[in-house]
Amino acid sequence: MKSTTKRTQKDYSLAFKLAVVDQVEKGEMTYKQAQDKYGIQG
Known about the structure:
Blueprint: H1 14-25, H2 31-38
């Protein structure tokens, strides 16, 4: 049997990452709000 490793890290597109960072930098949401809204770990 082949053992598989479980990944806990998701791969997000660069565009998604930049959009989230942009929203936080503009003050539209806090870092914590972004984590909650998008389910990201940071």
